[in-house]
Amino acid sequence: xxxxxxxxxxxxxxxxxxxxxxxxxxxxxxxxxxxxxxxxxxxxxxxxxxxxxxxxxxxxxxxxxxxxxxxxxxxxxxxxxxxxxxxxxxxxxxxxxxxxxxxxxxxxxxxxxxxxxxxxxxxxxxxxxxxxxxxxxxxxxxxxxxxxxxxxxxxxxxxxxxxxxxxxxxxxxxxxxxxxxxxxxxxxxxxxxxxxxxxxxxxxxxxxxxxxxxxxxxxxxxx
Length: 223
Fold this sequence. Notes:
Elements: H1 3-22, E1 74-82, E2 93-97, E3 123-127, E4 133-139, E5 150-156, E6 163-169, H2 179-182, H3 187-191, E7 194-195, E8 198-199, E9 208-211, E10 214-215
Parallel strand pairs: 1-9, 1-10, 6-7
Antiparallel strand pairs: 1-4, 2-3, 2-5, 5-6, 8-9
GO molecular function, one term: ferric iron binding
Family: Belongs to the intradiol ring-cleavage dioxygenase family.
Organism: Pirellula staleyi (strain ATCC 27377 / DSM 6068 / ICPB 4128)
């Protein structure tokens, strides 16, 4: 992976990313006759950033106008936020945070702090679009002691409590030993936390694409 590729990508992807990657997502309001199963809640964990970075956009690979990209397998994470009827929820804030390729979080209490990748943003935000879509460019999650690879995901909406869950790699062997994931006893519900991280055929640098849809309850009516 070379720096010029990252620079060109950062200049262009912010404006077009959500629309381009949303093409594979659901777009029909009220499509489902039966209610969708809610995405299971998961713990926020101890490593939500205790000091937010100056850059909180949806590109976690490059900080502000830096030219040195983060280390890791580039992953385009997309998804759609809906209610249980399949209706898109727009204008909600999606936050993600994860450890870097060395297993260190953007947090003062993280392990491996001395090895933390200073070029990895570690945290990002995105407001869902008209069809509930969101998009992040990040790295494929890696394991750290005691946990299988995962990405923390939070949803913030007016009039509703923050919803927090975690996205896991489908087929990852360590999933079977992860106490947080296995804490979801319903196997169908657990499946909703798994995303396939698939190679992008057109990519010459080994990029991946993953889709993680989130289903939450309806936002309370404001009085």
